[in-house]
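In response to a reviewer's request, we include the raw inputs and outputs for one of the modeled complexes. The two entities were modeled together in a single run.
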Amino acid sequence: MKWYKAAISGTITLLLVVLLNIRYGVVPAPGPFFNPVSGFWQSTNAQPEPSFSRLDISGLQDEVYVLMDDRGVPHIFAENDHDLYMAQGYVTARDRLWQLDMQVRSSAGRLSEILGKRTVDYDLFQRRIGMGFGAENKHNYLREHHPDLYRLAEAYSDGVNAYIDALPNRELPLEFKLFGYRPNRWEVINMFYVQMAMASTLNRTSSAHQMTNNLSKFGEEWVNKLFPHYPEFTDPIIPEETRWDFTPERPSGPDQIFRPSGATSSIKIDTPDPNIGSNSWAVHGSRTESGAPLLANDMHLNTTLPAIWYEVQLNAPGVNVYGVSLPGTPGVIVGFNENVSWGFTNSGATVLDIFEIEFEDESKELYFHDNEWKSTNKRLEKVKVRGGRNVKEEVVYTHHGPVPFVESAGNSSRWIPGGHAVRWVSHDPSADIKTFYKLNRAANYDDFLDALRHFDSPAQNFTYADRNNTISLWHNGKFPVRWFGQGDFISDGRDPQYDWEHFIPREHLPHSTNPDRGYVSSANQHPVTPHYPYYLGRTFASFERGARINEVLDTLHTATPDDMMRLHMDAISLHPRKILPMMTIAMHTPGVEAGTTEITGSELTEMLLGELESWDYNMLAESRPAMVFKRWWHELAEIVWSDIFEDESGRLLRFPDRVRLVELMLHEPDARWFRKQRNGREVGLNDHIRLAFDRAVRHLEENYGSPDDWEWYRMNNPNVAHLANIEALGHYYLKSDGAGETVNAVRGSHGPSWRMVVSMEDEVRAWGVYPGGQSGDPGSRNYDNTIEAWTYGGFYPLNLFRNTDEAREWFENPETRPALHTPNYSDQ
Amino acid sequence: MKAALVIIILGSWGLQLIFPWWSGIIPCLIAGMLGPDRAWKAFVAGLIGLGGLWLVMALSLDFQNEGMLVAKVSDLMSMQTWMIYTITTLIGGITGAMSCMTGYLIAAK
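The model returned the following structure tokens for the whole complex.
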């Protein structure tokens, strides 16, 4: 009888073990996850303390010392470049291993290996648009043409792998245990996947499809009126008075804009984000208190945990640089050394064109171009799917580039119609990493220029300041030489006039060095006036941030680092400043619909209007008028445009930009788009403004309760979410001032991803902050320790130690360490 | 009982460092075969042995970490911290108890 009991007991035990070892959808297997010997408990450590020690990993050629400072920033001291980048790879992996793995999967279209079927469409899109194609082109180019740099990239990889290889499963970061997998070894090509991901965020966009649909629906006159090439309020990056002393060879282009054959309908899902942006400026020593130039930069990207940036100091013979790095990429991307500092904002120039392709037949073996049939190439893409069948697909390539979607239909076609090829500059071979290698070591303006030559994409406004009192800004990258308007609409893939033949010579790129006004600045707006002899594109960021920065800089004659920090945190919006007075006046002007609405005239309305009229346009976190204005504007734009831009056939159309509506309201309030029929009456702009106000108030009451609780941050929801959107690992509803169009461009999950101020004095001083923390371990204090300072405008001093002695001195004297700096924000 | 506990605690801890989490049931099985004189005692030995070992390990890791990770994991699982501890202890405890009792039953047949 007893064997029977033993069998039952044994079976139950085995069954338990098996059940506890199974993943339940997104829930990790309980046994592996909860046990304290190898489960989540082991994924963290004691809270970090500053340390200064020799790095002991095999593969180093010489001694390497690393100071981990009070925020967990590594200061790496090596004797040669190889060791420097190997150590950088190692410490980055130690702090950010899961992020390294995840961002490569996400860029390369390999998420489904971990997340299963739900990410297959996403993975396929990454592959169809050629993320692998681009990464391989760049990888192979670097290996063949810059073997010295390739070896440094290998050293970085070796550093990452030194960490991965020695990491026991039980010490894997939390996320690996949540998702139940182990990272692959790191490969050199991953660095290019990181670069491709950044390029995707910044320039993988085109409104050609929407604009083509606009053109066919409304005609050329409307399109030119509603989508002007150069909006009136633009304050360009390069000072307007700049003259260009060269005459480029520019093609004249076809006689007529290409009209696509028609099959461009697609489901409306996704339009390019017009608010991606950054700020950067440099003030000449003649306008600073110290006499040395000041440089400031904040790059607006997704604010995530772990953050997109990893702070680091790199010190070896020939280089001593501090700044932020992109995990997965050797070197410092934005930062400073003892002689120069530099920052970036993204270029809005069009570097992705969409081509209609005529294929000979269904097989898509041949396509028509320049009067002959040419062969396509095919690239096999295989998506491995966890717990499902793998997906294979052949992507067709023309000489323009990949054809992401074969058929027109399907809700993943987004802004690229089926049967169209994509020509994207970021697919091209390039050695952009060389720019960073040289910038990190630059000692003067000539070095800076020399570094810029290698940078192709994603094109940036490079802001520069040095100790010799030179400030400069270059709109730098690889831009095709276009005829006027080329690429605004869908291009004709048959006609070689639409091809990219030549690129703008580097010395012709828009730039400004030591201009009379004493500062350079950029906020992604139009780089140049229409006098610039090349055509760069039609869509750039709205005027507000750029104009506000220039307006503030104009008033500063003895600028200090604190002034720069205050400008970083500036939340004055030029959008309401331009248009709100007109809107409040309209509220007092009876329109056709006077008396027909419920809310106007009420006590609440009067109170809100009074508040709006005396408002200083400051988008403060707790501001009620800021919230009312934002919703009011949203409703108004909807009322004005939605009936015009609603398309019965579901075509993807582009709404006019915010700034265009402002201009039209101010200058042509009686224009035809404002005249509508409503309830059998002809109504006009004033009626729309009143109706929009009613709707806004109703919306706010329904969604945010009593007007006492209307605070702008509740609508804006500044947040720093976990990369996998795990809510418990993120921070939401931060009480941060700002909005998408203010200098402090905090908007939902977007915002200043790294604020930096550098004073190029003989002993360079610098401050910086990004939301998050150096560690990717949610159990570490350094996982989210800097969010608070970022939210209210604190800046950490950035220590560029000249040698290990200085680093050791900092380490041994905790009481003399410089503290978090907060400028006075109250009396501006 | 004491012998069983020693075997379980040392054996499980050692094995789990190298092998998967469930390797801890093997010392429990052996302990059950060697030690207890009643099935329920074997069950309790496994429960206290492996469950206790896991609880103590979790507590000590949590103490070093100052409670930050377990707080995040609790949020993530929409649970209280004590529930995370309970689940951890129970997974160890029940598998330990069952395997230890199985060991006793095999030896006693």
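As requested, we also summarize the result in words. The two ends of chain A are 89 Å apart (CA to CA). DSSP finds 23 helices and 28 strands in chain A.
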